[in-house]
Amino acid sequence: MDPVQKKPSSSRVTPSASRPILLADDSQNDVEMFRRAYRKAGFQMPLHIVHDGVEAVSYLLGEGQYADRTKFPMPHLLLLDSQMPMMSGCEVLEWLRVRPEFKELIVIMLGGSGSPNEEATALRLGATSYHIKPQTPAELEQLVKRICGNWESAGSVR
Fold this sequence. Notes:
Strand content: 5-15%
Oligomer: single chain
CATH superfamily: Response regulator
Largest sheet: 5 strands, parallel
Distance between the termini: 36 Å
Number of strands: 5
């Protein structure tokens, strides 16, 4: 059976107090920059990383190495790179939004091009918001503070 067609292994939702975040990004450089900015900002929410769209789907379904929901809790926020191998961010978003079990998942698309078309597509497919990937560590730190700070304090992001 294709992993994209499977149902989640558990419908149990992680308590919102822990508010885990899933970052899906294929660039190791971008992941490390994000981790540094996240740590520097002092956020305490659990941060989990996947490196492509298929791995993001496996994590969300709780299958394979992600079956242990204690170790890999269902995220409350997904930061999704728009351009990943095997399954793009837009394909992951499209997959998510037709499944009622992921209706409440907040998804922020991080785009590389920043084109109006890319942003419009992400929003049409159901992204909560869209941001251009910052090019410098300082810009990334500001974006992380804005997204994660809003998420940590209010449980919502725009």
